[in-house]
Amino acid sequence: MAALPGIEICVFDAYGTLFDFNSAVARHRAAVGPSADTLSEMWRQKQIQYTWLRNGIGSYAKFWQVTGEALDHCLAAHRIADASVREKLMGAYLALAPFPEAPGMLASLKRAGMRMAILSNGNPEMLDPMVAASGLAGHFEVVLSVDAARVFKPDPLTYELVGKSCNVLPENVCFLSSNCWDAHGAAHFGFRTLWVNRTGAPDDNLPGKLAGQIRDLSDLPDLLGVA
Length: 227
Fold this sequence. Notes:
The chain is α/β, with parallel strands linked by helices. The protein is built from ten helices and eight strands.
């Protein structure tokens, strides 16, 4: 794909883009048991589904609550009644592992003087400890939470937070997300958006023209001409 000139700031989604949400269950695989992989996948699906439904009915709740409610459904579906498993998994969500290529990519962009930020559904009480535990906090000028808008992505109010906080026009923002629906929502808002398509999935038929797809974050420095 073509390079992306004129970018002033790279804004990253957190969960699934910089941080591996599957790492929470992976860390406690023995406690979860043989259904660990299916539970992890269902947890993420329900978590996102609940944000969309809450947007639709106008009933915002902090992402921590939504994450817990989604987990409760999944534990019930897998007939896991041990309260300690829930406690372990929710605790692990506060220290999700970054994807292997993320630290090097962020370091490359920082050396080149690129501004960087995070925009996430997570509330600050979730995001701040996770980013701190990863050792990556120093790369970001701001970690933005949709909690300030009291609505979840892909509502346009969430993407507006970037311009308000970072004093930048949408066309000068490179937004990256592993969630195709988020990538399209950001593109529809006006960001130049890259879908981090880690699984090789087909594109969704949604409004908002993507600037392109990358297989993981290691491709980003080349596209910005800072490798």
